[in-house]
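Task: sequence design from structure.
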């Protein structure tokens, strides 16, 4: 995950928007830099493959994933590439359709957690004083509370609520780390000349935060979002695996839940466990690669280290 490094003026020129610049312009600059990074490209290929699988599920899924009309616990074959479940459902079709809810939970939870982190972190840094003290204390409380037990308690209380309950639980427990990272970065920008100019022009706080502060934090916000999305995918799969989601939903986590309940490894359907587990691991690797590369792009210390390593290898 992103580690904060105090930035001086020259080191942030590539990622900073000029005064009055737009968020879209800053995003475009980061995207241009990212396309030259092999980690980003590999991560995008992995993530893009799963997104395409989710979007095209009705076209590429050979069967109805919920149709329990086939042979029970059959081995992989031309008709059923990954075999069937103990109830006679096609595992390959479930894997394809399960990508939809898995990605939806991960990325929506990541989005909501990032919005909370940005809102709280930037507000605390920009307003300062008592507001900063209160918001920082709330952030610290959420940081010290063990996330997993808290998720289990909330999910157990709302058990069976489905996808949106999981998204809410993961968002509530996943925003504090990002807020803690954003606050010092926003503090470093608060007294910059271009912000003082905006205040002198009479711009209100909302305009300054949206159009002056946030464009200068794009790489950090993207890194926080990717980390929160990865946390969301893994947390949702874990909660569903132990039965705290809606077992009637179709995701990779619920596939693992039913495979465990049916003792798939002992009943001759190992791919019922292996396939969703491998997809979760591969999706996590793809998001982590993109996250690490964005961190590398936005962190001057890592960029300098990479350039130094490249010069050393070239000299050798």
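Answer:
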């Amino acid at each position: 995950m992103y580690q904060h490094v105090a930035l001086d003026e020259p080191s942030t020129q590539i990622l900073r928007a000029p005064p009055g610049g737009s968020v879209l312009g800053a995003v475009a600059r980061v995207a241009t830099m990212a396309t030259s990074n092999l980690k980003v490209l590999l991560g995008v290929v992995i993530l893009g493959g799963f997104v395409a699988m989710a979007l095209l599920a009705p076209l590429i899924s050979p069967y109805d994933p919920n149709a329990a009309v086939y042979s029970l616990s059959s081995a992989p074959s031309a008709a059923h590439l990954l075999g069937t479940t103990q109830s006679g459902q096609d595992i390959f079709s479930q894997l394809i359709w399960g990508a939809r809810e898995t990605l939806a939970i991960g990325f929506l939870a990541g989005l909501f957690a990032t919005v909370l982190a940005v809102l709280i972190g930037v507000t605390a840094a920009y307003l300062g004083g008592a507001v900063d003290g209160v918001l920082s204390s709330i952030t610290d409380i959420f940081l010290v509370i063990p996330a997993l037990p808290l998720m289990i308690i909330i999910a157990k209380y709302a058990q069976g609520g489905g996808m949106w309950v999981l998204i809410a639980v993961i968002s509530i427990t996943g925003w504090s780390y990002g807020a803690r990272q954003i606050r010092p970065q926003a503090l470093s920008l608060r007294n910059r000349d271009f912000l003082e100019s905006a205040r002198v022009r009479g711009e209100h706080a909302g305009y300054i935060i949206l159009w002056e502060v946030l464009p200068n934090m794009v790489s950090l916000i993207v890194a926080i979002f990717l980390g929160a999305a990865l946390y969301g995918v893994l947390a949702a799969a874990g909660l569903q695996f132990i039965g705290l989601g809606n077992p009637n939903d179709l995701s990779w986590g619920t596939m693992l839940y039913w495979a465990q309940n049916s003792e798939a490894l002992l009943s001759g359907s190992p791919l019922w466990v292996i396939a969703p587990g491998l997809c979760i691991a591969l999706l996590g690797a793809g998001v982590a690669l993109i996250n690490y590369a964005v961190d590398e792009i936005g962190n001057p210390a890592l960029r300098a280290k990479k350039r130094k390593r490249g010069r050393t290898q070239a000299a050798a």
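The chain is about 70% helix and 0% strand.
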